[in-house]
TrEMBL record:
It comes from Phrynocephalus forsythii. The modification N6-(pyridoxal phosphate)lysine is found at residue 399. It is found in: Cytoplasm, Cytosol; Cytoplasmic vesicle; Golgi apparatus membrane; Presynaptic cell membrane. This is Glutamate decarboxylase 2. Its cofactor is pyridoxal 5'-phosphate. It is a peripheral membrane protein; Lipid-anchor. Its EC number is 4.1.1.15.
Amino acid sequence: MAATPGAGFWPFGSEEGAGDPENHPGPAKAWCQAAHKFTGGISTKLCALLYGDGEKPMETGATKEEQKPASRKAACTCNKKPCGCQKEDVNYTFLHSSDLLPNSEGETATLAFLQDVVDILLQYLVKNFDRSTKVIDFHYPNELLQEYNWELADQPQTLEEILLNCRTALKYAIKTGHPRYFNQLSTGLDMVGLAADWLTSTANTNMFTYEIAPVFVLLEYVTLRKMREIIGWTGGAGDGIFSPGGAISNMYAMLIARFKMFPEVKEKGMAAIPRLVAFTSEHSHFSVKKGAAALGIGTDSVILIRCDERGKMIPSDLERRIVEAKQKGFVPFLVSATAGTTVYGAFDPLIAIADICKKYKIWMHVDGAWGGGLLMSRKHRWKLNGVERANSVTWNPHKMMGVPLQCSALLVREEGLMQSCNQMHASYLFQQDKHYDLSYDTGDKALQCGRHVDVFKLWLMWRAKGSIGFEAHIDKCLELAEYLYNKIKNREGFEMVFDGKPQHTNVCFWYVPPSLRIMEDNEERMNRLSKVAPVIKARMMECGSTMVSYQPLGDKVNFFRMVISNPAAAHQDIDFLIEEIERLGQDL
């Protein structure tokens, strides 16, 4: 049923009884009391919407009959509080999207429909943070394909069916904001960032010119300048752009570095220039090679530099490989250092790398997609010492800073270079006789024409938290990682992949079941150990209790890589993860 008073949803028998915070037990009571304090009458509806019998939020989409939206009372746009307007009944059974705005008679149905969508979202949001709910309701692909009809048809569905689709999609979505979701570098769900995303979608505009995105273009200018200041470039000078993820930001850096050295490549292509080579660590992100492939440089032209036991690039090996490449007649044009590698969370020695790049006149890029957020922390930013000497930096606020996906910035120290590299002077967009400052028409420096507004959620979160709020979040995540490390480093059944405290929130370890603890360290043991993490991960997903990633690396068989960027995570969730791994792996 639709989660509204008009749909007969109230779990306590009456609208009045459902809204009373005293009628809710345990955590639900505490939540509703807080909601009632700050929202007054709004909490009457919200508490009843979010909580059914007992403390646990109701499962959405249990059956199609339970989910079916019935008629509801339409929302009102008047400014009177309380509102005494007569409400119309809206029945979705016979309505389609064509009955919504911009249909001239669509206002009533639109307001009712969007209110029901918000109700679905609110249910999902509260469940996201509830530790008693599953992180994932896992089904195999063939099961989901058979259980629901996902096919696209010629005829439109009713709005009743559309709301059912919304509930079904969220029912099987991964709760990435759940306190026990540790699977990816991007976790958590910030409420201000979410609100900003809603507003961005409502504005539904493009970032290529000031005339169609005036506020968003200015916010991008302000935010990128602030990020360049934090990197350490005087006065925030330079350039930059928000791109669709760190892989594209890294490719932008490679593109601009090539143009800086050989500007003729823009018109004449790779055949007009010498054989280029780039350098990055063997632990760097795969996007460096992918960018080389996309730009016609070739993956064979990306030379991997050895790392030490903690995953940091070895500067002496970098210089040796640069000299070798030059002796072969190749032209070194880019070194991509990493600030926070994907698996180990390692920070390359940027000062030493900067010295080498200066010596050989090579563009220095820092991939700080994962580790760039540590620049916000006075306690941890030293790990990126030397970043201010880079020519370009990738920084993904959607990772360590908790901004909703996607939000990735490429920052460039030299102003105007990105524009020169990418501009095509499309006269139907970038007319030179406009009546405002054309420097705010930023679209011609991007590879894309259509570019999503990614800046607003970061800007609004920054306004809401301040820099100190981001700092507190980052410090907390690093502290939780150290807490995990201290809990397992000497715990029976756990072995660390490398010695020493984590550099970032990455904590890498093996779980060794009792059956393997007495075995000699030989090939058979390694083969059996390599199967442990995948089985435990599969069991985690099937029971829905938590999620954490695993992978092999080099000569090391599958191990768990725990990362923490979720602001909802706490010590109890770290304790739970340890005990859950033990529970699920004891019999292996």
